[in-house]
Amino acid sequence: MLIIAPLDPFTASFDSLLEESKLEGQRMLVRLRDNWHSGVNRFALPGERLNGVFCLDDHHQRRLVATGGRNIDPYSHQQRAGRIRHLYVTHALRRQGIGQLLMAHLIDGASLYFNYLNTHAPQAAYAFYQRLGFEPVSGDESVTHRLMF
């Protein structure tokens, strides 16, 4: 069973997902943890959310298998620009719809706060974002794709 719920870097099993991401050469969960601890970004402003996808095992223990957040875009000068941040799915469960499920949750209700959502995706994730309706963006170093509302 999968559950989407709020999370923070103190959530049980966050550290194991962080270590996996570091072994893959990814830094998004390191930035998430560091920005949370410094107070730079705690996903606490209107329209923001930080969620995880948790698997329940046979003993009803939750294990974090994916993270993702929605923020006010710190790289944009537009007041109603949002940003998808720190999307990461554990390697063992990729291509099983977990990222799509989490993204649907992050997109849901976003238009109440934002005119669009930006992301800066690695090239390997371009097709994923485009399947979700994000359009490629050129000429902006901080944005690879945008979803308009």
From TrEMBL:
InterPro entries assigned = Acyl_CoA_acyltransferase (IPR016181), GNAT_dom (IPR000182)
List the PROSITE patterns: GNAT
| TM region(s), chain numbering | none
One Pfam family, please name it. Acetyltransf_7
Residue intervals of the N-acetyltransferase domain:
2-149
Please, which domain of life does this record's source organism belong to? Answer: Bacteria
Please report the name of this protein according to its UniProt entry.
N-acetyltransferase GCN5
